[in-house]
Amino acid sequence: MRVLLFSKAATRAVYHKQYEHLAAQPDVEELLVVVPPYWREPHVGKIYLEAVTPQGYHLQVIPLRWNGQYHLYYAPGLPRLIRQFRPDLVHIDEEVYNFATYHATLAAQRAGAHAVAFCWQNIYRRYPPPFRWFEVSLAKRLSGVIAGNHDAMQVLRRKGFTLPVSVIPQFGVDTELFTPGNMPAPPPFRIGYLGRLVPAKGIDVLLESLKSLPNECEAWIAGEGDETPWRERAEQLGVAQRVRWLGAIPSTHVAEFLRQLHVLVLPSRTTPRWKEQFGRVLVEAMACGVPVIGSDSGEIPRVIGDAGLVFAEGSAEQLANCIRLLVDQSETHHNLAQAARRRAMEYFSMKQVAVQYVAFWQQVIERQRTR
Predict the structure, then answer these.
(1) What is the pLDDT of residues 134-147, one digit of tens each?
(2) Which of 18, 59, 74, 100 is the most exposed place for a label (fewest CB within 10 A)?
């Protein structure tokens, strides 16, 4: 089959290895990945397309209109590309209530192609027009939806999506790039965080947990966003000297950062409008053989499984207890490191995810043929 895949997330070079795995699947005749030159992330800024060399697939860069407006952006040139490429299936990495998905799905239908969307939204909401209209229309127009987590699948069903839905991560982890390294011996004991520097990610919980941990414990905090409020909070808590602020890390350097850690923490906190949808950094750390600790927000416990530790979101005391367990017990640390690598290989490798994607694409195409 010929597949056109449209994704603003494809600005990250590390994700392109998955496109190689997709293109290598026997059922994929040709793959065209369509990506914007940059994505304007709110509160972060422009995330430019990183340097990539396509292997086995084609890459097309097209501009977006209303770039940075999650619900309203779209690619004006996408219908023309779809007509030229003549795909059997168009995969749209976007939510079912956004205009980009609606616009691309209409273009796919006009070209006689199936359309599949990707959905992260794991909290049930009723959207105002026109987004509610897009959702209602796409429930009938799409051939299938891939949900990034189990709660998202339940939301789709509750909203009347009776079409095929499968729970698959948006991207797997490159287990050839994200590999265990020579973990440095403590002290210091390096507690890492990598992600957006926003309140919902629970950075304050990590900082507070440092207060009750041995002085040999340091927090290494990296990510995109404004560090100022978190630096001020570290000063208030009296732990500023034990925090290293590393700023944004290019996706091509993430594995190197993770291999310097003794544990990776994702202390996400649920809000009325958001809960953790997956936690990609968890599987990247796991693939590197780094033990992981996560809160019980959203999908985190399902991602970690029995290969890490989970604490009640918002509880700095429970987080500190989990970290202390790894500081004090080298056998526990060793066992969790091995379990993390095994779980990443078995469930979250890019090759495994690519196989699942193609199987789902084939399923929705065959379903339409037999109707």
Answers:
(1) 999 999 999 999 99
(2) 59
